Amino acid sequence: MKRTGLARAAALLLALVMMFTTLTACGDKSQDPNGGKKDTLVVALNGDPPTLDPHASSNSTSVNNLNPVYETLYRYDQNGDLQPLLAESYERIDETTWRFHLRQGVKFHNGEEMKASDVLYSFTRAAGPDGAKVSYIMGYIDPENCKVEDDYTIVIATKDPFPLLGYLPYIGAVVVSEKEFTTDIEHAKTHPVGTGPFKFVSWDKNDKCVYIRNEEYWGEKPAYENLVIRTIVEANSRVIELEAGTVDIIFEVPANDVSRLTDNPDTDVVRNLSTTFVYLGMNNSKAPFNDPNFRLAIDYAIDQNALAESVYRGIAQFTPGPVTPNMKYFDDSDVTDRYDVEKAKELLAASGYDTSKPLHLWTSENTARVNTCTVIQQMLAEIGLDIKIDVYEAGTYFDLLESGDQDFFINGWGAVGFPEPDNNIYGPYHSAQIPVNNSMFLRDDKLDEMLTKQRAMEDGPEREALVKDIQKYMRENCFCICLVNTEQVMGIRSNVKNFKPTPAASHFYHMVTFE
Hints:
515 residues, alpha+beta, D-Maltodextrin-Binding Protein, domain 2, Dipeptide-binding Protein, domain 1, 4-stranded antiparallel β-sheet, 16 helices, globular, disordered N terminus
């Protein structure tokens, strides 16, 4: 009897232990599928970074692959307020000169301490030929008049009066290791070494970038050890992998999957209005796009509201210009679209274009943009235009845009890292940015003058009036056709906490925790 009682007691105890273990495992979503503590965050982007050189691209896929590694002197917080990062404080000496006091004891991933000489090297490189992609901001730096005062103090000069502080969170202003870039520059451009919360491990092109926690990080260390940022171009595949739990965060959730992910207890959707506008760019340097009548005909032929509804299904809205509604100085004086097929036909006839000649519409393989091209193709057919759609891999696409061979193209532009309207109006429109950022090959002296003037002005009523005048001038001349202002729609696993997307499409993962 004793043995039987002991056996029953042991069996009961074992059952209770097994039940408790099972309940604990089921209730602890922070564990990985194999039962251990989840220590890897997997993020899926919609494209591969064209480069890992921070001075060679402001593309959002590059930025979001570099954010774990590199840091800037200042960063915007979730409220859009500037916060010190690698710098602790600053003084503005005069209109063109700033003094920054650096955080001490910050180490690069190679073990070297970050010093003012690294900042000087970084800004000098970004302002030079290697920084062509970021020159629309970093080109204002005047390296010859920048000065290292000591290891932790640097004076940064600009060529003209320029509100530098607000641009410091930009990817072009990250601090790189001078030693890495001067020892082996080709290696440095593909193996980033920064001061950030994660160390770079590897990049398998068109597949993934891998990172590991920086155990010597100067700030709060990530709660998990490994970060993997995958490239999954096809939107449906990203959604399927999120549902399966093989990824934790996905970018650009398609509109028709939003409710599906919201209703799924294992997934959730994070939405906020972005600073990105999707536009139909036109090569203003060649016929027929050098004729304003032809450009306006295209604008009147496109029903932007219908496009927003059919392609984006509630996660984008028509925008009349490049400054989006959630940015300061948005011009709300004319926010209606121009859709009028008969007017479009009149303007097309006035342009004298021979409609028997096909035009080529370029896009990257981004799903929403391919669908946008298809809708535009159908709309332009109504006024007699024959449109051929050419789809390219993202890296190839951006290289081709610099060739000047394009007729017209779909692209997106946003304030990656900082919600400043100058970003959306200067880079893609100023003639000095041809061909790297100004893919429209647009040259307009009056516009150039206004763009240059506004970026040297301090914020206030005068700059606001000028920025609004610029928006009106752009729309009157229809240099490109702004289509929609997109929402950022990101899918996350329900156990992912403390992921807070920024409106400026530049996201940070180091504060993420698992429930």
